[in-house]
Amino acid sequence: MEYPSKLIEDAVNEVSKLPGIGKKTALRLVLHLLKRDEDQTEALSNSLTAMRLNVKYCQKCHNLSDNELCTICASHKRDQSLICVVEDTRDVLAIENTAQYKGLYHVLGGIISPVEGIGPSDLQIDSLIDRLKGSESEQVREIILAISPTMEGDTTAFYLQKKLKPFNLKISTIARGVPIGGDLEYADEVTLGRSILSRIAYE
């Protein structure tokens, strides 16, 4: 693709590096930014720079935060007896959007994946153990493993279960089954099988 300006070409190349954005979409976005007022484009640039420089990880749960502790860990309204273990911040956001969970979180920063060279030591597992040994030890009653039901996710959950066993806590996992509005004929065998095995009383 021929560009009328080297500066535009450079901008398109950078924007197209974002996930899900190809060169054509990147070009549309770049041309849109050129049409906007200069102060609007500058505000976007400044907010991205500030985000990159100032967003940090919560010292307690490793969620993204503006401060040393994220708003969830700093809140006195959260149930201190529950810790939900998730893969990354996107999972925290997804669970928070349900407005059904009022406990705390622990973000692993990934899952065990030998193929990608990610082992337990690359994840925030030791810090979870430290939380359970430290000041939170008497408060925590249950660990919820909210990890994706993939082979790597199941491996991570199994590893965590073994590491958490000495603490004599209730260890649970999120329910897995047929989604609301889904047809049984389209459900895969593993999901359908787990739904049958994990059946609940009809109310």
From TrEMBL:
Keyword DNA repair set for record: yes
SUPFAM superfamilies the UniProt entry points to: Recombination protein RecR
Entry superkingdom: Bacteria
Pfam family, one: RecR_HhH
Annotated Toprim domain residues: 81-179
Cited CDD domains: TOPRIM_recR (cd01025)
Zinc fingers classed as C4-type: ranges: 58-73
Keywords from the named record: DNA damage, DNA recombination, DNA repair, Metal-binding, Zinc, Zinc-finger
GO molecular function terms noted in the UniProt entry: DNA binding; zinc ion binding
Signal peptide limits: none
InterPro entries tied to this protein: DNA_Rcmb_RecR (IPR000093), Rcmb_RecR (IPR023627), Rcmb_RecR_Znf (IPR015967), TOPRIM_dom (IPR006171), TOPRIM_RecR (IPR034137)
Family per record: Belongs to the RecR family.
Described purpose of this protein according to its UniProt entry: May play a role in DNA repair. It seems to be involved in an RecBC-independent recombinational process of DNA repair. It may act with RecF and RecO.
PANTHER family per UniProt: RECOMBINATION PROTEIN RECR (PTHR30446:SF0)
Protein name: Recombination protein RecR
Gene this protein is translated from: recR
